[in-house]
Amino acid sequence: MEPIMHVQNVTRRFGSGSTEVIAVRDVSLSVAPGEVVLIMGPSGSGKTTLLSMLGGLLKPSSGRIQIGPDEISAMDERRLPEVRLRRIGFIFQDFNLLSALSCLDNVAIVAQLAGLSPSQARQRARQLLEQLGLGHRLSFLPEKLSGGEKQRVAIARALVNRPDLIMADEPTANLDSQHGHEIMRLLRRIAKEEQRSVIIVSHDQRIKDIADRVLWLEDGQFKDIVDRADEWRLPGGGSEIDAYQWLCEKTSNIVRLAAGVVG
Amino acid sequence: MFYLAWRNLAQSRTQFSMGVGGVALALLLMLALDALLAGAGENLVAYINQSGADVFVAQEGVKNMHMAASAITPRDVSLASHAAGVVSASPILYTTSTIKAGGADVLSYIIGFDPDEPLGGPQQVIAGTTALQEDEAIIDETVARSRGLGLGDEVEILGETFTIAGLTEGLTNLVNSVTFIRLRDFQRLSGSDAVSYALLKVKPGYDPGAVAVAITTRNDDEVNALTRPDFAREERQLVQDMSVELLNIMNLAGLLIGLAVTALALYTSTLHKRQEYGVLKAIGAKNWQLYKVVIAQAVLSLTLGAGLAIGLVWLLGLALPLVIPNIALALTGQAVIRVGLAALLIGVIAALAPAWQMARLDPARVFRG
Q: Ramachandran region of residue A195, left (φ > 0), alpha (ψ -120 to 50) or beta?
């Protein structure tokens, strides 16, 4: 099957000379339609920079990024908003809903940006929100919604223009474990049922089981790529991701312990 | 985008009220002074408008009454009365002076008219008579009320005592009033048989403009004849010419205050919503679509502010004469257009900084939190 996204030797540098930082180094990736790809890695590994480039928000210093037939890395800046609007759906860490608009209008406005009339846009937004179980919350402002509901609105907004690709930046960061899993299962279902590819950037170990593929980014490079996260084992038997999770938990415990001592 | 602009505005009611209120007050400053001067202008021409004359005949070069000295001869009046289409020519003698009423000096136009003539005297008498006898006068009821005077009381006009025999309505303005005495009394006091103006009534079917031109021409240009609307316009123009500097200063002040309030409100709102605009940009909104939000917010604020200002001036126009009878506010179409254009200018300038801010907004920042 033809990949929906093809990334070839992408590098991104910031600064120059002695202050030069290479945030992403020679990264290559292909994403098939309906595939869910999870990109993980420690803070400062280049995940955000990579996601910004994949979403057409940032130009790579070198390399190619292709979504379908469009090479977005070579595309004129003025054409990129159109590609982002029609081919990519974004889901952000902080939900980033427009605080003045209701659930319905938050979704409808994106369809209107793509050229739908207000009534058509609202109709499509209503359908999506009802499918996502938010039919009773259409007129609610974001401040009146729970975290899980906000993220479902964000998912509806990402889907409203029927994009080929969904990019999610830490989609479970502000959700509890139960809602985080719900959201991820929802994303996986959408990916499989509608053949939309999903690229997720996250620290969250709990969601790795919904991914078709987990990529580990460190120092701007993919360290290894495996088909299933649980097949990627460290010599001791556990995966590197599990080791990372273990380290995070230990760090967290140490911080809590220290806080208790100080307190 | 218009809906988003409206929702953004309505989201913070305090900010919205302050923004619209600030704009309204700034535009009110412009509009109220304009209305006050227009009202004064209308009051100033109240006698002319109420006179019932179709044509005013004045001395050559004289086009109005306020601050003007006009003298025409009885022959001029006679010639005018015989012009084609003229029904009658009523002479009046006019000067600006102070009358002593209830122990105070009141600035007033003094008009001497012939009670036997159809025109020249007051057309709206609310008490007493227009058929004046010797040493009788008609004053405006606003002056009479403010000075505690009534019919039968005395006032001093041009150094002589007159008895109030009638009261008029609507002939007092911010600056002065209109007082009527008999032409014969006025001529006796001035020691001359000259008159200031002749007020002509034109036969139905005749064009007052053509009659005025014919009289001016026929009298070898020694007189100047103008139709009532032209004569009133010249009178109003005088007020405008006298107040144009003040009006310009107030307009500029209103414009600058309105600009500052709107620009600050828009800029603050855009700054406050920067993250959200960044999200829209990341999702795929183009710069021009975001500019539309800023422009719509400016248009909404200014339209509401201008509407509020116009409404307030209209209400002031109703309420103010009840409190201060000699003040009138006249809301003119020209003033409304001027305020509308000022609001447009404010909107365009105020939207520049937020638009620039939006154009520079990096959509990738939404991923950086």
A: left
Residues of chain A found within 8 Å of residue B366, distances taken between Cβ atoms = 90, 92, 96
Structure confidence by residue, pLDDT tens digits, A102-159: 999 999 999 999 999 999 999 999 998 998 888 999 999 999 998 889 988 999 999 8
Distance of CA B199 to CAs A76, A220, B176, B207, Å?
78, 96, 22, 15
Residue range B310-341, pLDDT digits in tens: 899 889 888 887 877 777 778 888 888 888 88
- Domain annotation for chain A: domains and CATH numbers: 5-97+164-232 (3.40.50.300)
Spatial separation of the C-alpha atoms in residues A99 and A88, rounded to whole Å = 22
**B8: contact with A, CB 8 A cutoff:** yes
Residues of chain B found within 8 Å of residue A92, distances taken between Cβ atoms? 279, 366-367
What 3-state DSSP class applies to A10? Answer: strand
ipTM: 0.79
Q: List strand residue ranges (DSSP E) for chain A, in order.
A: 5-14, 21-31, 36-40, 62-67, 70-71, 88-91, 165-169, 197-201, 213-218, 221-226
Condensed to tens digits (0 to 9), the pLDDT of residues A17-33 reads: 888 899 999 999 999 99
**Quick check: A199 and A215 in contact, CB under 8 A?**
no
Task: Quote the CA–CA distance of B23 and B302 in Å, as a whole number.
Answer: 7
Rounded Cα–Cα distance for residues B43 and B170 (Å): 8
Q: Where are the alpha helices (DSSP H) in B177-273?
A: 183-190, 208-218, 228-272
The pLDDT score that the predictor gives to residue A233 is 43
Q: What pTM was estimated for this model as a whole?
A: 0.67
* Backbone φ and ψ of A65, nearest 5°: -125, 125
- Report the length, in residues, of chain B: 369
Query: What's the confidence (pLDDT) of residue A231?
Result: 45
Among residues 249-278 of chain B, which lie with CB inside 8 Å of chain A?
A: 275-276
Partners of A104 in beta bridges = none
CB A168 within 8 A of CB A88: no
* A96 shares contact with chain B (CB less than 8 Å): yes
* B197-209 core/surface letters (b: 16 or more CB in 10 A; e: else): bbbbbbeeebebb
**Which residues in chain B touch residue A83, judged by CB atoms under 8 angstroms apart?**
284
User: Given a cut of 80, is residue B175 above it in pLDDT?
Assistant: no
Cβ atoms of B290 and B277 within 8 Å: the answer is yes
Q: Would you say residue B1 has pLDDT above 80?
A: no
Q: Which residue has the higher pLDDT, B193 or B138?
A: B138
